[in-house]
Amino acid sequence: MARTRQRKHKCPCCGSWFIPDPRKCGQQRYCPKKQCRQASKAVSQQRWLRKSGNEHYFHGPEHVDRVRRWRDAHPRYWRKKRIQESLALQDVIDTQLIEETVKSADVIQALQDVMGKLPRLLHLHSKDHSGFPETGQYANQTGYAGCK
Fold first, then answer.
1. pLDDT for 16-73, tens place per residue?
2. Least confident of 17-21, 72-76, 88-92
3. Are residues 68 and 122 in the same domain?
4. Count of alpha carbons within 13 Å of 39, Cβ hemisphere only?
5. In sequence order, which residues have a C-beta less than 8 Å from that of residue 39 and are 6 or more positions away?
6. What whole-number distance in Å separates Cα of residue 126 and Cα of residue 47?
7. Cα dihedral value 82, 84, 90, 91, nearest 10
8. Which of 31, 51, 127, 137 is the most interior residue, by most CB within 10 Å?
9. Can you give the residue range of the structural domain that contains 128?
10. Are residues 69 and 112 in the same domain?
11. Residue 98 lies in a domain
């Protein structure tokens, strides 16, 4: 794949050469340094204010009233948000409610929990004599295959 040659541009603020971001499509005139971005913003604001109709855009009594109404509607906007000290990270849990829920729910036990309660006779029929019955034999005798 042939690589396109990127042209360097000279920053009007600091005078250094830079390769513009290809996503800007030829619109980037200033380099990405912080002071150059601030200068670019100032120049674009001045250009906007020089256009007819924009020079008094933020002036006048209607704008003062608009800002006052917004500030009245959002009184805490400029204040820093503090973590409320009265709120705990964890709420107190009512254990009695949880115990009743567990008792009333149909809980499927894990295989190792069920095997500890089986009669020892089942363990004697294991072919490998390791103390654990074969899965097929256990499923046939208990009706429980160990999974849903």
1. 999 999 898 789 999 999 999 999 999 999 999 999 888 888 888 888 898 899 999 9
2. 88-92
3. no
4. 14
5. 12, 13, 30
6. 89
7. -150
8. 31
9. 107-148
10. no
11. no
Report how far apart the first and last C-alpha atoms of the chain are (Å, whole number).
54
Buried b (16+ CB within 10 A) or exposed e, 108-140: eeeeeeebeeeeeeeeeeeeeeeeebeeeebee
- Residue 18 pairs in a beta bridge with 9
* Residue 29: burial class (beta carbons within 10 Å; 0-12, 13-18, 19+): middle
For 119, the 3-state DSSP assignment is coil
Q: Could you give the count of Cα atoms lying within 13 Å of 89 in the half-sphere of its Cβ?
A: 0
Last residue of one domain, picked from the residues 73, 96, 127: 73
At 96, the amino acid letter reads: Q
